[in-house]
Automatic annotation (TrEMBL):
<protein>
    <submittedName>
        <fullName>3-deoxy-7-phosphoheptulonate synthase</fullName>
        <ecNumber>2.5.1.54</ecNumber>
    </submittedName>
</protein>
<dbReference type="GO" id="GO:0003849">
    <property type="term" value="F:3-deoxy-7-phosphoheptulonate synthase activity"/>
</dbReference>
<dbReference type="GO" id="GO:0009073">
    <property type="term" value="P:aromatic amino acid family biosynthetic process"/>
</dbReference>
<dbReference type="GO" id="GO:0016832">
    <property type="term" value="F:aldehyde-lyase activity"/>
</dbReference>
<keyword id="KW-0808">Transferase</keyword>
<feature type="domain" description="DAHP synthetase I/KDSA">
    <location>
        <begin position="17"/>
        <end position="254"/>
    </location>
</feature>
Amino acid sequence: LVSREHHATRSVIRVGGVPIGPDTLSVIAGPCAVETPEQTLAAVLMAKQAGASLLRGGAFKPRTSPYSYQGLGERGLKILADVREETGLPVVTEVIDPGSVDMVASYADMLQVGARNMQNFALLQAVGRAGKPVLLKRGFSATIEEWLSAAEYIAQRGNLDIVLCERGIRTFETATRNTLDISAVPVVQRLSHLPVIVDPSHSGGRRDLVVPLTRAAIAAGADGVIIDIHPEPKTARCDGDQALIESDLREVADAVTILSPLM
Ligand code: PEP
């Protein structure tokens, strides 16, 4: 269902009325994790300066360590809904278990399935039935074939509103947190009709790499990027090292407007 054999032309997915797909370059941006109403609003206002048309923010955080910040849960979703009201940007947020899909879907415009859950088949089936577009991140040890099979689980439940997100894979390299597999963008776009976006924040894990990786993603033909922003990264409860700050926003906005004619 997700292959080009099923659907020859590339799909456009609408999220709260905002298109993601060919002929647009979507920026999804906001805090890695929702911490407070003030921090979330500040990050999303910064996201708008960077050219964002959708906001991101995690209320349920699937952290590697159980001692790391796990998110505000439903309280965080309410903050996201308030910030949508204030800024007009649709909400992209992660859901981590099948039992909370309906609850998360009642607040979100797009459900994110994170890298750690890419092969959580019960979750994939649940988001496939939820009636909301899905952002499916690539697992950090998943092949492209496994990633597309995961998308197939969602599609098989009747939901073809799926956007794929390359977010870096695990390699022998330790200079970056993960290795952005930039070739996955054109490879997947040839195999599948679904839009493909890139996460330059979680792949590199470093603020100084976000702009160069954004440029690389656009040059490779990605349909968008998803970026972490924080008003005060030093105090961030999650992934502060990769969060963009005020002085980076212009470069992202310029990369998006200047490079998108390349598409
Ligand atoms: C995220 O986007 O908040 C996230 C945890 O990303 P990933 O699943 O790619 O690690």
